[in-house]
Amino acid sequence: MDSSLTFRAGIKDVIPTVFGYIGVGLAMGIVANTSHLSVWAVLLMSLIVYAGSAQFIIVSMLLAGSPISAIVLSTFLINSRMILMSPKLQEQISHTINPIKSVFSLIFIFYGFNLTGGSSGEKLFGCL
User: Fold this and answer.
1) What is the mean pLDDT of residues 77-90?
2) pLDDT given at position 3
3) How far apart are CA 51 and CA 24, in angstroms?
């Protein structure tokens, strides 16, 4: 298979995910703006916290004056779902991708899980 065909197929596979990220990013921008967070705070949070749901919780907890320990614990609990999905994705991609890329791809669990399709080979999330 030539590289242009592989690249084209990859672009086709990621387009639905890109539209999902645009929607969540716009919603986060609106929430952050109405919460009077600085652009730098939002940028830093976007770089540090990958889970979009955790970003929304962090903003609301910051506004409520919650202690940092509660915010960190809540973020950990929200992201703990990744611990359950990671081994399955690792099983799916470990034989095709070198170990460094394999570990890095676990960051993108939902996207990667959808593309690999779980054990049946079908896409797991119909919306993607």
Assistant:
1) 74
2) 54
3) 11
Q: Which residue has the higher pLDDT, 39 or 82?
A: 39
Distances, alpha carbon 103 to alpha carbons 89, 93, 98, in Å:
10, 10, 9
- What's the mean pLDDT in 22-45? 89
Cα torsion 34, 38, 41, 42: sign = positive
Question: Quick check: 34 and 26 in contact, CB under 8 A?
Answer: no
CA trace torsion 73, 58, 21, 102 (10° rounding): -20
Taking the chain, what is the end-to-end CA distance rounded to the nearest angstrom? 25
User: Amino acid identity of 72?
Assistant: V
**8 A C-beta contact, residue 35 and residue 63:** yes
Over the chain, what is the mean pLDDT?
75
